[in-house]
Design brief:
heterodimer; A: alpha/beta; Rossmann fold; globular; B: 277 residues; mainly alpha; MetI-like fold; 2 domains; transmembrane (chain B)
Chain lengths: 263, 277
């Protein structure tokens, strides 16, 4: 596996992907997606956008191994390192277990990794400080705001030291200001930890701000209808450049074009 | 009026507001206590009237003022504590057997489809049979013993816990199971202890709590058949017309149940302390 620091997108190895993939909820039902090709390279931030109900979250669940593909192939090419998981998931709802404290929720992900109690506790502190929530370790989830809950959800995903993080519209339920903070925190963590991120969102602005590459899903059954490379760049909200604007335009029309097609 | 405005204190309240909210709560509690005691006094008054004017057949309604002397009599005679102790033994056995079995069977039925389908018809046939109908078999199998009484008690408790656990487990949010899989925590035992039981805890505990009460109902009835305990003492007292002693035992049951329910509510509150206030 080549390091994300190596220049040139194509030289970086594909860590997660599907080929000719299809999925249906049950036998005989119309497929949610078919002929779907998608790949995520080491250290890459890819957003998956598309209208609501198009099947983005279903794709993410298949990539996470939570749903079995109906056809096609799934590659997962990451070395399994002791005390870590290869991929982890951040859900749209933060999905904290209400009967565990913040620290307990983060520990939940780590508990199956064969670490000692002390190591687990260190992991919890490490990721809590990463999301600026160190003082909240003993709080109950019911005491947290939406943004705080989502931070804990991200911390839980990071505590298992994954190389791939799959995020399902993680910021869609928080207010605009919190969302901006969380986006910037996420970018910081992503570059520091050299993560490959697949980020599902329906917000084109969010996708263009965060991503190296944006995939547009559309059609019925759905497939990837547009692949927009954003390139490596410094991310600056104050100066959204014209290239970014143009990309947003293209994505928007790719989404619109499909929506207009009908079945 | 001041109290009402304090209770509906708007957001951004001052410490003075909080103080008056506390005072308001205190007043509500005090009012409840006073009215509760008043209700008690009124009903004892009605009882006394009924006694004085012989509303019930003569000799079957004790004088309220005879209850405390009767209590002393029961203690001094050496009947009360052994009876309570004996009742508590089969109560504890019946309650714990019924609770554990109801919990396990309810849990298995809720998580295993084959087991669920196998037990459904059987449960439908057995459920309507009142626990006391089993007394005949209890006597045939266990004679007049603690085991027989415990058996009868456990049947009622079993059904309460079985249904409570079954529906509580069925209602655990499926998204938590998906979370468990996302983190590779999908072994049955692991999922049961980390997700299913805590997720169903509030329903399961409600079932256990109902069972704690249900067990008393069956206990007294089971003892009327001769197993030593509170029920048998009541029956014996009634046989000699000592209705004041019967009332003593009734109040003892109420007291023990009240203490148990209170202790249970403390435990339940601690276990479910994560729930928003």
């Amino acid at each position: 596996m080549s390091s994300p620091a190596v220049t040139g997108e194509a030289t970086r190895a594909v860590v997660l992907g599907v080929e000719n993939a299809s999925y249906r909820y049950r036998k005989g039902a119309a497929p949610v997606f078919s002929d779907l090709d998608l790949s995520l390279r080491a250290g890459e931030f890819v957003s998956l956008v598309g209208g609501s109900g198009v099947g983005k979250s279903t794709v993410l669940r298949c990539l996470a191994g939570l749903l079995p593909l109906d056809g096609g192939r799934l590659h997962l090419d990451v070395e399994r390192i002791e005390g870590s998981r290869r991929r982890s998931v951040v859900f749209q709802d933060s999905r904290l277990l209400p009967w565990r404290t913040v620290g307990g929720n983060i520990a939940y992900g780590v508990e199956g990794l064969g670490l000692s109690k002390g190591e687990r506790s260190d992991r919890v502190d490490e990721v809590l400080s990463l999301v600026n929530m160190l003082g909240y370790r003993d709080r109950w989830p019911s005491d947290l705001s939406g943004g705080q809950s989502q931070r804990v959800g991200i911390a839980r995903a990071l505590a298992v030291r994954p190389k791939i993080v799959l995020m399902d519209e993680p910021f869609s339920a928080v207010d605009a200001l919190t969302r901006r903070h969380l986006q910037d925190e996420l970018l910081g963590i992503w570059s520091e930890r050299e993560l490959a991120v697949l980020f599902v969102t329906h917000d084109i602005r969010e996708a263009t701000y965060l991503s190296d590459r944006i995939l547009v899903m559309g059609g019925s059954p759905a497939r990837v209808v547009h692949d927009e490379p954003m390139g490596r760049r410094s991310r600056d909200r104050a100066h959204e450049d014209t290239a970014q604007e143009a990309a947003a335009e293209r994505i928007s029309s790719a989404m619109g074009g499909i929506d207009g097609e009908g079945i | 009026m001041k109290r009402i405005s304090a209770i509906h204190a708007p957001a951004g309240k001052t410490s003075e507001d909080e103080h008056s909210v506390q005072t308001g709560n205190l007043l509500i509690h005090a009012r409840r206590l006073v009215l509760g005691l008043a209700g008690l006094v009124v009903s004892v008054g009605v009882w006394k009237l009924a006694y004085e004017f012989n509303w019930a057949p003569r000799g079957t309604l004790p004088d309220p003022s005879a209850i405390f002397p009767a209590l002393r009599g029961e203690i001094e005679s050496g009947r009360l504590f052994p009876a309570v102790g004996s009742s508590l033994i089969h109560y504890a056995w019946g309650l714990s057997m019924g609770t554990v079995l109801g919990l396990v069977v309810g849990l298995l039925a809720a998580v295993n489809r084959i087991f669920d389908d196998m037990q459904r018809l059987l449960a439908r046939i057995l459920r309507p049979i009142p626990p006391l109908a089993w007394v005949v078999f209890a006597i045939a199998w266990f004679q007049v013993s603690h085991a027989g009484a415990a058996f009868v008690i456990s049947i009622g408790v079993f059904w309460v816990n079985y249904f409570a656990t079954y529906s509580a487990v069925r209602n655990v949010d499926p998204r938590f199971y998906e979370l468990a899989r996302a983190f590779g925590r999908n072994r049955f035992v692991d999922v049961t202890f980390a997700i299913t039981l805590p997720g169903a805890a509030s329903g399961i505990l409600a079932g256990i709590r109902t069972g704690v009460g249900q067990a008393w109902m069956t206990l007294i009835a089971a003892e009327l058949l001769g197993v030593p305990g509170i029920g048998q003492e009541m029956n014996a007292a009634a046989g000699v017309g000592a209705y004041d002693a019967v009332v003593v035992y009734m109040l003892i049951i109420s007291l023990i149940y009240g203490l148990m329910d209170f202790a249970f509510s403390l435990g339940e509150g601690w276990l479910l302390r994560w729930r928003p206030a």
